[in-house]
Amino acid sequence: MGMTGMSGLLRVVMLGVAVGRGAAAFDGSGYARSVDAVVDAGTGDVTYKLHWTVNGDTIRVALDVATTGWVGFGIGEQASGGMKGADIVYGYVSGGYATVVDAHSVDTVKPEADCDQDWTVEGYSEAEGRTVLELSRALVTENVQEDRMLVDDGVPTKVLLAWGPDDLDEVSYHGSRARSIEVELFKTEAEMQAELDTIEEIAAANGTRYFEIRNNAFTIPATETWYEDTCFSVPVNNAHALAFEAVVRDTNRELVHHFTLYGITSPDCKDNTMAGEIMLWAWGPGAPNFVAPDGTGFALGAWVADGYESFMMQTHYHNPERLRNVQDSSGIRVYYTEGDDSLQEVGVYQLGDPRVRMFGRKVGTVGEITQYQFDCPASCTTKWSNSLTIFGVMLHMHSVGFAMHTDLIDADGAFVPDEAPLGRVDFFDFNFHSFVPISPPRVVQPGTGFRTTCMYQNDDASRIFGLGSEDEMCINFVYYYPKLTSANKRIDMCGLGDCGTVEKDLPVLDQTDVSGWGRATCAAGPSLSVISSRSHAIFFTALGAVTLLSASA
């Protein structure tokens, strides 16, 4: 190909990396772990199969998807897992070549190409209606502004999966062709089986029983999004809940987006105030079951103050195809044991605005990012009956929540040095918030203060703080043991109206003030690196990667 032809191709920008021709038939046997991530509810066929191997400081993945269009794989923010704040790679196979883009997203729009392309194409194929992309990347890259680092910290990784019927240029809203799941990337099959065995061991232990909270043959509405609330009265007393297990019908697993389980300290879900309704667990596809730390459990029944006497289970159904006449009896299995006084009680400490004392107040200014800081001063915790061993958090806002974090502060209100936030999300998404384990657990001593910051990007001048899903909140649910007591009265809230304060007249923020992630500015002009393959070269520029076919191609 002469220079004239090359000049013509330069006007056609192909983002990503193209590699040489064809790959052998793919069977995935060379990978350490695999998961049938998406299964067609009607046929039982595997739509998206994910394979991966972690070897040293590198991860290799294979995306095996039932499409002849584009396929995508993403790493979500740990406390969210949605498309906002996701590190994404996607591509397609066409004409014997694979084209792949290393990208990122700060909103629910088409991802933007990274300044640095860190994924390497190891192999690819397109046959019999399926596309396979085999890719590799360093677990920790130098591109800290556009990549999510993969670290073996004992916490599952939020993974996004998406695909479409067309080529890369047609990547757009993918509706029903997208999933968000949790995956234990660093655990072996044996370790994963050990987790399953833990539930089985709990179930088989002497004195352990279970009851189930189910949607009783509920007909899923033919609408894209539906939230169904189910109340369940706890049938036992003097008991502790040891574990929660999601029970989802195989035929409906693509329609059940997530469960949220609330514990209520009165019978029949009658006390639905923030004081009596505590978020205990949130589950989504791929998420592990909840198992309380050894020797602990949630108190069930009225035998102790604030024991849970009923549960409210909220099911989020996602039905983008608007299927009709589909019935569902999915739910949550609660494992418990009775009469074991040796167990330490799990508590849920609420920070921020736990009683929604901001009720009725307007949420910031439309179109701007506004922030509120809720302090639980160190003076409020000096009389704790014991230290807290914290093993998880759940950051809670609603639809216009933008970002949230809780920091530890000292007696003077200054940040405690070298202490990581007690939960942080820079790209909050109400549809994807979940329980985030803290591993290893952190011990917090009496006399420690907390500052919870919530940020909102409001889109409605009439929006207020309140209890409805269209309103806003700011609560960090902190899971710990042993539960605090004081003169037989529970102390489980600290924030506005509960010993704490709020600072609401704070400066309006720019998105880069919240997080610089995903907002890097690429250097102009072509870089010096040229990557050669068997039949072409790729020049990386500020626009992406421009593929120049060689004369032999």
Can you characterise this structure?
The termini are close together. This protein has a 10-stranded mixed β-sheet with strand order 29-28-31-26-36-35-25-32-27-30, with no helix packed on it. It folds into 2 domains: 3-187 and 529-549, Sandwich (Immunoglobulin-like); 193-512, Copper type II, ascorbate-dependent monooxygenase, N-terminal domain (Jelly Rolls). Helix content is 5%, strand content 44%. By secondary structure, it is mainly β. It is built from 3 helices and 39 strands. Mean pLDDT is 83; it is low at 1-23 and 524-553.
CATH class of the largest domain: Mainly Beta
For the record, what is the CATH homologous superfamily label of the largest domain? Copper type II, ascorbate-dependent monooxygenase, N-terminal domain
Counted by DSSP, the helix tally is 3
Low-confidence stretches: 1-23, 524-553
SSE class = mainly beta
Largest sheet: 10 strands, mixed
The coarse silhouette is globular
Q: What separation lies between the terminal Cα atoms?
A: 9 Å
Q: How many structurally independent domains?
A: 2
Count of β-strands: 39
Average of the residue pLDDT scores: 83
CATH hierarchy: architecture of the largest domain: Sandwich
Strand residue percentage: 35-45%
Helical fraction:
under 10%
Radius of gyration: 25 Å
Please state how the strands of the largest beta sheet are arranged side by side.
29-28-31-26-36-35-25-32-27-30
CATH topology-level name of the largest domain: Jelly Rolls
What order do the helices and strands come in, and which of them pair?
Layout: H1 3-9, E1 17-18, E2 33-39, E3 46-55, E4 58-65, E5 71-75, E6 86-94, E7 97-105, E8 112-113, E9 120-127, E10 130-138, E11 157-163, E12 178-183, H2 189-204, E13 208-214, E14 218-220, E15 225-233, E16 239-247, E17 256-264, E18 277-283, E19 290-291, E20 296-300, E21 310-318, E22 326-328, E23 331-338, E24 344-345, E25 347-352, E26 369-376, E27 388-396, E28 401-409, E29 424-425, E30 436-444, E31 449-457, E32 475-481, E33 485-486, E34 489-490, E35 493-496, E36 499-503, H3 511-514, E37 530-532, E38 536-541, E39 544-549
Parallel strand pairs: 20-24, 25-35, 35-36
Antiparallel strand pairs: 1-7, 2-3, 3-4, 4-10, 5-6, 5-11, 6-7, 7-8, 9-10, 11-12, 13-23, 14-22, 15-21, 16-19, 16-20, 16-23, 17-18, 17-21, 25-32, 26-31, 26-36, 27-30, 27-32, 28-29, 28-31, 33-34, 37-38, 38-39
